[in-house]
Write a structure and sequence with these properties.
elongated; 79% helix; mainly alpha; 367 residues; Serine Threonine Protein Phosphatase 5, Tetratricopeptide repeat; single chain
Length: 367
């Protein structure tokens, strides 16, 4: 009987020990949970403080707060992304790149991280690399508003390409956005202007004609169509579009200047239909005079020998009386000499003013 009691006593004691251990373990777990919750609460507080500091432009202080938050939650991707933003805004591109590499090493499809990396690389003038990260952002994963964020990333890339005048790449990015972009007039006008910048006036005209169909009284549609026609050398059509735009917005000085330029070109262009031989000849004389004057102005007192030879030939031609039977031949000779003078002028002198009427007419004739 004593043996039985001893066994029972042992089992009871063992059970009590187990209960005590379980109690201690539960207590430790409870305390650890409380400590974890408190740590997470502290990290959240630090993160929110950092966001407020960033809103005030205090990026260096925000970086310190975010580093403290990450000391508590090292793998928190929201904290890491925000840290990269603060580092970039604080001018610490290298630090931002290191932070973003930490994110992208575990998830290369992170949309925001790729977008930020693109911005970092632009800051470092590594544009070709940046473009690939913008593409990853466009097709990457976003936690919310996926379509909106992808569209904004594409527009940011488009803006970068437009500033660098990368026409081929710009056109490639614009084509898919026609279907993705919002249909508000402001965005459509922006897209039309970007197509012009990308060297695609035909597509620009399609966009602007669509705006004109939906909003017949929107002067931007007519101004845009005028720009598209102007870029294609259709000055007569451009003139009519600019006139319509000015009737809708009489104070638009930019459109008025474009209309004035159209008028100058229409008065100079010797290739317009309906011109008589005499009119065409007179315009060739005018273009030769303009080319000679421009060459003199850009060379000053030191005219290069090859330019002087052309100027002498031009002077002789301008003094020569031309019989009616030779008007056509003389017109061609004048225009050819004007083109030679202009090409020489471009080699010898600084670039001409933008939208130089002489250059535009000669360029149209060369098409």
């Amino acid at each position: 009987m004593s043996t039985t009691l001893t066994g029972r006593s042992f089992l009871g004691t063992f059970a009590l020990v187990l209960l005590a251990i379980a109690g201690l373990f539960a207590g430790d777990m409870f305390l650890a949970k409380i400590d974890s919750v408190e740590s997470q609460t502290e990290a959240t507080r630090l993160f929110k403080d950092a966001q407020r500091l960033m809103a005030r432009g205090e990026y260096h202080k925000a970086t310190d707060q975010l580093n403290d938050a990450l000391a508590i939650e090292r793998e928190n991707r929201d904290y890491l992304r925000t840290l990269a933003q603060a580092q970039l805004a604080d001018g610490k591109a290298n630090a931002a790149e290191a932070t973003l590499n930490q994110i992208l090493s575990t998830d290369s499809t992170d949309g925001l991280a790729n977008l930020l990396m693109g911005r970092v690389l632009v800051k470092e003038d590594r544009v070709e690399e940046a473009v690939s990260y913008f593409h990853r952002a466009i097709y990457g994963h976003w936690a919310q508003d996926t379509e909106g964020n992808r569209r904004r990333a594409r527009f940011e890339l488009i803006d970068l390409l437009a500033k660098r005048n990368a026409k081929g790449e710009l056109l490639a990015e614009l084509l898919p956005i026609l279907e993705e972009a919002p249909h508000d007039l402001k965005t459509r006008t922006q897209i039309g202007n970007l197509f012009l910048l990308a060297g695609s006036p035909e597509r620009a005209e399609e966009v602007f004609r669509g705006i004109e169909h939906d909003a017949p009284s929107d002067e931007r549609a007519y101004a845009g169509m005028g720009d598209a026609e102007f870029a294609r050398g259709n000055y007569r059509t451009a003139e009519k579009d600019f006139q319509t735009a000015l009737r809708l917005a009489p104070d638009d000085q930019a459109t008025r200047q474009k209309l004035d330029l159209c008028n100058q070109l229409l008065e100079l262009d010797p290739t317009l239909r309906g011109l008589s031989l005499q009119d065409r000849y007179q315009r060739s004389v005018k273009l030769l005079e303009l080319a000679s004057t421009d060459m003199h102005q850009c060379s000053g007192d030191t005219v290069p020998a090859d330019a002087q030879t052309l100027l002498d030939r031009a002077s002789e031609r301008l003094k020569t009386h031309v019989a009616g039977s030779r008007l056509s031949e003389a017109s061609e000779q004048n225009l050819d000499l004007a083109e030679q003078l202009w090409q020489t002028r471009k080699k010898e002198c600084k670039a001409a003013a933008k939208d130089n009427p002489l250059e535009l007419v000669l360029a149209r004739m060369a098409q």
